[in-house]
């Protein structure tokens, strides 16, 4: 079976929770309130691509080139300015007033700056769609589809100050995004001051649960707890399990066999017992 290429996020400990990273050509949402590190997340994602020779595009609605460079410098990423000067990283500040920016200026800028392999970060997306209604969901869907064609995008979002997660400016991109990661600043103390949860990762396995993370000078966001998740994932030999169930491959419906193979490759915790149970009952 052909292995799907993955896009490394650049966030230490996160790829292990996403099944080796983002899927290629996807729109990925990062949701979090002020102070959770959304901008650091976006820059870290872009920087990983730059280090691999990929182009980067960073769009902001409140930060210009100097602001972005200063933020990177504060983290110890002083090479960001070199990437800007070389043309590998394009940064622009937009003033969003309505949805028409999706259809012209913003997409035009991204398309013009994109290379063969491009990482796109939009920080943040909320101002652009804050006035949208649910009826305008197709406009955002169209925009996301264009981003997927150009490259792998991280689109950061603000969490509503009033805690109302049903607002269209949040619900629409969360519904349409291929993955959603929720960053929270809990205020519980050092160990669990900031936590990360993967809400969804369309078409891919992802770890369940809440994981603490820290923002450290020099490296950026570091997610903890991935070692335990990795240790719980099982290497499963489907052929061996079929024999253990007293069956032969030719005895099993082809569609069921295909599903079980996909399940075995997921390496999810407890998958061995699940496959054996299905084989004994349904095969």
TrEMBL record:
Pfam families linked to this entry: ATPase
ATP-binding found in the keyword field: yes
KaiC domain sequence ranges: 5-238
Keywords: ATP-binding, Nucleotide-binding
Signal peptide per UniProt: none
One annotated GO molecular function: ATP binding
PANTHER family registered for this protein in UniProt: UPF0273 PROTEIN TM_0370
Protein name (database record): Putative circadian clock protein, KaiC
Species: Archaeoglobus veneficus (strain DSM 11195 / SNP6)
């Amino acid at each position: 079976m052909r292995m799907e290429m993955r896009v490394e996020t650049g966030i230490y400990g996160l790829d292990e929770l996403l099944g080796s990273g983002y899927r290629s050509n996807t729109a990925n949402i990062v949701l979090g309130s002020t102070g959770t590190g959304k901008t650091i997340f976006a820059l870290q994602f872009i920087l990983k691509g730059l280090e691999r020779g990929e182009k980067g595009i960073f769009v902001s609605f409140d930060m210009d080139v100097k602001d972005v460079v200063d933020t990177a410098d504060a983290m110890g990423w002083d090479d960001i300015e070199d990437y800007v000067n070389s043309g590998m990283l394009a940064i622009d500040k937009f003033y969003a007033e309505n949805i028409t920016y999706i259809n012209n200026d913003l997409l035009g800028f991204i398309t013009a700056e994109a290379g063969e392999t491009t990482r796109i970060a939009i920080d943040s997306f909320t101002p652009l769609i804050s006035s949208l209604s649910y009826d305008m969901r197709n406009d955002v869907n169209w925009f996301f589809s264009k981003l997927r064609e150009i490259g792998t995008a991280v689109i950061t979002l603000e969490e509503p100050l009033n805690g109302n997660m049903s607002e269209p400016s949040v619900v629409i991109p969360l519904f349409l995004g291929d993955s959603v990661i929720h960053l929270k600043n809990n205020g519980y103390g050092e160990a669990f001051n900031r936590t990360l949860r993967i809400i969804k990762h369309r078409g891919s396995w992802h770890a369940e649960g809440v994981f603490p993370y820290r923002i450290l000078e020099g490296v950026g966001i570091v997610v903890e707890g991935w070692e335990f998740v990795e240790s719980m994932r099982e290497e499963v030999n489907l052929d061996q399990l079929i024999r253990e169930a007293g069956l032969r491959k030719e005895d099993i419906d082809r569609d069921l066999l295909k599903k079980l193979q996909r399940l075995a490759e997921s390496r999810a915790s407890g998958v061995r017992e699940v496959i054996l149970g299905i084989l004994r009952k349904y095969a």
